[in-house]
Design goal:
The protein is globular. Helix 2 links the parallel strand 1 and strand 2. It is α/β, with parallel strands linked by helices and 330 residues long. It folds into two domains: 162 residues, Bordetella uptake gene, domain 1 (D-Maltodextrin-Binding Protein, domain 2), CATH 3.40.190.150; 100 residues, D-Maltodextrin-Binding Protein, domain 2 (3-Layer(aba) Sandwich), CATH 3.40.190. About 5% of the residues have low confidence.
Length: 330
Amino acid sequence: MVTSTARRNLGRLMIGGTSVACFGLKAQTFPSKPLKIIVAFTAGTGSDLLARNFVPELSRYLSQQVIVENRPGAGGMIGTDAGARAAADGYTLTIASAGAMLITPAMNPATTPYRFEKDFVAIGGLARSAFALVTANSGDTPKSLSELAVRAKSMPNPVPFASPGSGTNTHLAGELMLKTAGIRGQHISYRGSAQALSDVVSGQVLFGFDTVGATLPLVKAGKLRAIAISAGSRLATLPEVPTMAESGLKDFTLAAWWGLFAPKGTPAENLSKVADALAKTLDDREVKRRFALQEVEPYPISGFDLTSLVQREEVQWSRIVQDLNMVQKS
């Protein structure tokens, strides 16, 4: 026979057990701990600035802290590989563009350890930006693309130019622009935009090719001169700078894009929560304001559409790499 005291104790145990079980379920609800976003380049690059301009709002919409972690090196390969090898739980995400995700594997097929189809799943688009061709803002540097072409063709050796890293979309876009303009260039690779643009400012290299967002602060400060942009029309922030098409390269338009990716195998419900928060983030008025100051536009395409974009551009960039004879032999 069960006494009243025993019944009360049993009730407490059952209630306590139920409470513990509920607490356990609550603790496992995603996200229950801070998330990390890997940026595969140094502080001050376009990817880094982009991340820091939207992460505060993403944290708010996820109701969880989101931390930016810079993992630079090898043209974005090191950080992107770290993202591919992270636990597939949604707590480690990677910002990537065509450079590290597509161009690096195309250029280095034997040494790049990751591939999009095998290692990643797309969450959604982040932003797009045009590229800018820049020189030092001094009296003896080219003031237009035509002047740059004349200067380069008069030199006995290929003219050196800077980019944030070998195999980045910035690097390949620069190479494609040079080929289209008939300019012989010698690529100088740096570990990020800050170092690359610093050497352009000092005159160590004649010109640089980078995203508008990365070059804009130095252009506005009077240290760099933007001589052409890859957008289809002039930009409101640089109205005096002509497009590549206006500068003589007919139909030459290129844009950099950034997307958010997770390791392959990440639970669909976790991806969905991040994607929903990302959509709200990119529609946030303050994020749009910050993006505009960086001269990038929100690119709120779905994970499905981003996957389609990556698959299309994988074919395009592979062909460009082969046409430029840039495939590295093992």
